[in-house]
């Protein structure tokens, strides 16, 4: 099965850029979108014409802000955040078989100390929640825009960004704690030395120069590691300041 995640930075803008033409070629079973920036009644009709059986949306209370959407080709039980007050529309949790799959737009901490504090509280609440799921022997998949680069290999200028939210020690340490808790960064696990990015600033021709950050992830729990077949970053696909990322798992529904 193929799972793909993409921060579209505005689903209406992405549709206007014909940003979903690749769907037919890649044929994902699950497509997680973050930062859709739209209410359910503002979703372009073209999205409902994509080849998926189930569409779920968690919109922010604030108009034109945040929001996540999942497009699925199999039946799931879907719910919004069970671990954090989610007025910002950041979480969709899907359950099927013994698997729990999260589509998450993690907070950005760059707009002052209050937002960084919010981000870290969100991180910690989520980690506590999934640790409880591990105790239930659940298989767990986490995908989305985590808004943090973990290691120096994951961004072009680590030293210059060491005091910037997105590469602060406290943020990076949280990802380390996640991995130490029994999770795998799928792309880095399969490609330990490959420098590829998933986000580029719109400024200074950053994408053309490949001055980027890898801040979008698929994490899986250790009990899914035998099922991991591939992880990939689709940096040839445009339509957002992020590109899609994905994994293939050998599992059946």
TrEMBL record:
Biological processes, Gene Ontology terms: base-excision repair
Keywords: Hydrolase, Magnesium, Manganese, Metal-binding
Record: active site: 105, 145 (proton donor/acceptor), 242 (proton acceptor)
PROSITE patterns: AP_NUCLEASE_F1_1 (PS00726), AP_NUCLEASE_F1_4 (PS51435)
Site, Important for catalytic activity: residue positions: 216
Site note Interaction with DNA substrate, residues: 242
A Pfam family it matches: Exo_endo_phos
Positions that bind Mg(2+): 7, 35, 145, 147, 241-242
Residues covered by the Endonuclease/exonuclease/phosphatase domain: 4-242
Cofactor note: Probably binds two magnesium or manganese ions per subunit.
Enzyme class: hydrolase
Listed cofactors: Mg(2+); Mn(2+)
Enzyme Commission number(s) from the entry: 3.1.11.2
Matches recorded under InterPro entries: AP_endonuc_1, AP_endonuclease_F1_BS, Endo/exonu/phosph_ase_sf, Endo/exonuclease/phosphatase
Residues marked Transition state stabilizer (site): 147
A molecular-function term among this protein's GO annotations: DNA binding
Recorded family membership: Belongs to the DNA repair enzymes AP/ExoA family.
Protein name, as recorded: Exodeoxyribonuclease III
Organism of origin: Campylobacter portucalensis
């Amino acid at each position: 099965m193929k799972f793909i995640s993409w921060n579209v930075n505005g689903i209406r803008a992405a549709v206007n850029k014909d940003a979903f033409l690749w769907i037919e070629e890649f044929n994902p079973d699950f497509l997680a979108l973050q930062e859709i920036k739209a209410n359910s009644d503002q979703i372009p009709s073209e999205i409902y014409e994509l080849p998926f059986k189930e569409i779920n949306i968690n919109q922010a209370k604030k108009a034109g802000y945040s929001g996540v959407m999942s497009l699925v080709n199999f039946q799931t039980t879907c719910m919004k955040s069970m671990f954090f007050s989610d007025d910002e529309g950041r979480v969709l949790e899907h359950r099927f078989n013994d698997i729990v799959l999260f589509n998450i737009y993690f907070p950005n901490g760059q707009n002052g100390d209050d937002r960084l504090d919010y981000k870290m509280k969100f991180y910690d609440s989520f980690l506590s929640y999934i640790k409880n799921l591990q105790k239930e022997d659940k298989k767990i998949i986490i995908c989305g825009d985590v808004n943090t680069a973990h290691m120096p290999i994951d961004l072009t200028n680590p030293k210059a960004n060491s005091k910037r939210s997105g590469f602060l020690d406290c943020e990076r340490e949280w990802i380390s704690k996640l991995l130490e808790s029994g999770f795998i960064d799928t792309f880095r696990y399969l490609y330990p030395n490959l420098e590829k990015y998933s986000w580029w600033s719109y400024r200074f021709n950053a994408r053309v120069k490949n001055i980027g950050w890898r801040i979008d992830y698929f994490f899986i729990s250790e009990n899914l590691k035998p099922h991991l077949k591939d992880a990939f970053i689709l940096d040839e696909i445009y339509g957002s300041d992020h590109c899609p990322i994905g994994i293939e798992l050998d599992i059946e529904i």
